Amino acid sequence: MKEPSQHESPAVDVAQLVAEHQLSVWRCLRSWGCSPQEAEDLTQETFLKILEKPFEDQGDAATRGYLRTVARHLLIDRRRKEGRQTNIQAVENIDLFWANTDDRKPEELLEMLGECLQGLTDRARLALELRFQDRKSRTEIAEALEIGEHGAKNLMQRAKQQLRECIELKLKD
């Protein structure tokens, strides 16, 4: 029988680890400003990185936290190599949110977001959908809503603040 090398860990099923956590790592990277393709690349790099050393599963919450930390460091390293600045404080604020929700399933968080989105006005919800689903510019959003660019910016800022407050309230329950 072959002995496991230092790069193989009998403590974790790699396929199961990836299946359980790949989507949450990808979503986290997207929340930090990565494009879908960049998030996909960094998600793969994250799993490759953690498999370089023996990995022992410490439970869902700890594993998600560890994966986020590895992904965050890979993102920061990539940004440095590209010569791009990363707003570390913004990444840390988002990471704090993810850490505070580690005991919840991603589907539960998405359900909360959906409920909070329903609490927005139709215009505010449309503005956010145009921005984050359709990737429209502020100018395009302003044209679609027949308002000025500054009005579109203010509408989206207020809507994001309402979502933040709604989700924080739901997380306290």
Automatic annotation (TrEMBL):
Domain of life (superkingdom): Bacteria
Any Gene Ontology biological process: DNA-templated transcription initiation
Gene3D superfamilies named in the record: 1.10.1740.10, Winged helix-like DNA-binding domain superfamily/Winged helix DNA-binding domain
Signal peptide per UniProt: none
Assigned keywords, A-Z: DNA-binding, Sigma factor, Transcription, Transcription regulation
Domain RNA polymerase sigma-70 region: 17-84
InterPro entries in the cross-refs: RNA_pol_sigma-70-like, RNA_pol_sigma-70_dom, RNA_pol_sigma70_r2, RNA_pol_sigma70_r4_t2, RNA_pol_sigma_r2, RNA_pol_sigma_r3/r4-like, WH-like_DNA-bd_sf
Limits of the RNA polymerase sigma factor 70 region 4 type domain: 111-163
GO terms of molecular function: DNA binding; sigma factor activity
UniProt record similarity statement: Belongs to the sigma-70 factor family. ECF subfamily.
The protein's name in its UniProt record: Sigma-70 family RNA polymerase sigma factor
